[in-house]
Specification:
It is a single chain. This protein is of the alpha/beta class. 42% of the residues lie in helices and 16% in strands. Helix 1 crosses helix 7, helix 2 packs parallel to helix 4 and helix 4 packs parallel to helix 5. The chain starts with a strand and ends in a 5-residue tail after the last helix. Bound molecules: nicotinamide-adenine-dinucleotide (NAD) and 2'deoxy-thymidine-5'-diphospho-alpha-D-glucose (DAU). Nicotinamide-adenine-dinucleotide binds next to helix 1, helix 4 and strand 5.
Amino acid sequence: MKLLVTGGAGFIGSNYIRYAREQHPDYKIICVDLLTYAGNMENIAEFTSDKEHFAFYRCDIANKEEIENVFSKENPDIVINFAAESHVDRSLENPSLFLRTNILGTQVLMDACLKHNVKRFHQISTDEVYGDLPLDRPNLKFTEENKIKTSSPYSASKASADLLVSAYHRTFKLPATISRCSNNYGPYHFPEKLIPLVISRAVSDEKIPVYGKGENVRDWIYVEDHCSAIDKIIHIGEVGNVYNVGGNSEKRNIDVVKEIIKQLGKSEDLITFVKDRPGHDLRYAIDSTKIQKELGWKPMTSFEVGIEKTIKWYLANEPWWKNIISGEYQQYYQKMYANREI
Ligand code: NAD
Ligand code: DAU
């Protein structure tokens, strides 16, 4: 079996490759990644020497020639599309990059899948395509039937890709599935996102920026649980279906931040409230009944266990994130957070 994974040098993609290597040691995994600021060969360094079971191509999913070259050389059976511009805040600065990668890139990949008779195309989508939920109605959760209703250029680009995937399935009979997952956390998470940002800044006793009042709620899932859901879907999921994936772990941002500070033995004085993210989604909460009932999946890691494992990983792997934050990331941080304190 040949499994082509796009965005495999990023956070979730590299965790999925690690998961798939363990679950399916006989598969060949082909990783396609442009190595943008978010892609990092260190995330997949342990696999690259095994040429029989692993191949890496640095290429752009939105570049038809480059993708055609990989598909004709490798003839994959299954394609999983993780590659994307993934950070909401960056999408407010440069929407067009998000539209190119997340929408056109998906279309280029699907055309290649049709041409090369790929048996399954799986699109990694997000719960953000459903917009947000109010803070005062805790029983409301996103189901697969919810309307698409997006808030940011990022979520709009992901929703547009989902619509294209459904169209390719219906019209061209592309054997496609989609998963919409909530907020992941765990090893190799790029330190621009909330949890690794808080860990890395708290370790260094630096101010921790919390948007607005920190009351927004996210449904956190340990990345390995997302990986196991994807693996189930590509093997036993039904084509044409969307599956919601969530961690059953809703938390307010401020509580997540305080928990990390507590575990690191740092002071809450580091917390700095800053100007809110424009269009900031209030609450995400996933109803994952469908994948639980139909595919027998459920999240295995509670937030309490997952956050402890994650903090331990960041403490044991300081060179990994220090290397990232010492480079061009410094300019990003200055640009995004300067003069934002309230
Ligand atoms: P990430 O930003 O860590 O990784 C994205 C990867 O895609 C990087 O390795 C990058 O180099 C690569 N990439 C970007 N543009 C590319 C292009 N044009 N061609 C080839 N490769 C390219 O993102 P992540 O957090 O790992 O997210 C992976 C996927 O999961 C995304 O599709 C995202 O929308 C989705 N998702 C993420 C979360 C989350 O909480 N992180 C939750 C639900 C869904
Ligand atoms: O829900 C799934 C989505 O989760 C994915 O589709 C996205 O790719 C992923 O980035 C994530 O989006 P969020 O916007 O929810 O994640 P982020 O880590 O950027 O922010 C989490 C919450 O923390 C959000 O309410 C904003 C807040 N926040 C974030 C940052 C970076 C802060 O308060 N301060 C910060 O500095």
